[in-house]
Amino acid sequence: MDRKTADKRLMRIIQQIAAGNYSDEIMELTGPEYPANVQELAEAVGMMMVKIEAREFHLEQLLERIKENSLKTVTSIAVALGRRDEYTEGHGERVGIYSERLARRMGLSSQDVEDVRVAGILHDIGKIGFSDRMFCGEDTAMSEAMMLEIRSHPQWGHDILSGLDYLGPVLDYVYAHHERLDGRGYPRGLEADQIPMGARILAVADCFDAMTTDRPYQRGRPAEEALSILGSMAESGALDPDAVEAFMEDIEEHGMAD
């Protein structure tokens, strides 16, 4: 190959590499059919490309470890928050289990199933902003201020997690898990298709676990009674009917979470 043609090809490949389009094409220019200066420059660029790829791979691994560690930290906080109140201990973990099972039964992708599971664990992290009176464990009449705290916790949860942008749709699920299909939920009054499916699934799992565990204001209900109430909530426009139906089937097949 003549020098002019070889130089043009070399420059084209270098421009591609500079743009982040790596390939083994640069190594073809190290063959004996190319001029010596082209061979030498191609070898140097090829070595540089390999080193860049290695560094990028290392950075990607480092970023994944950072994401994993930060998620573990936030999850630990959510679990610890549940232990602040004997009545809600284990609630997040169980909602995560129910949500994962329901998402899988409804045919969501593996990534969507994982996002719903994580959202289930983290859905109440906004309660970290609750005052101590909300965790006293006593049958205290709800004041207007206490109701405002309760209705604010999805917003607080979204705000707490918003810095972890890699969570993606998990943020939306946490934000919308108390919305209702009829638009009477909170904190934004979303309705119907405005509510993401992950949040609809989470809402069903959350309601069921809340009803079947002891709370200061009520004893845990049997599964059959809780499922019947879920059915009524679906009929009234509070919950997604398809999600409720699938959840009933899942509980019948797999039982309650430990």
From TrEMBL:
Chain coiled-coil ranges: none
Record-annotated HD-GYP domain positions: 66-258
InterPro entries for the chain: HD/PDEase_dom, HD_GYP_dom
UniProt superkingdom: Bacteria
Official protein name in the record: HD domain-containing protein
Organism: Pseudodesulfovibrio senegalensis
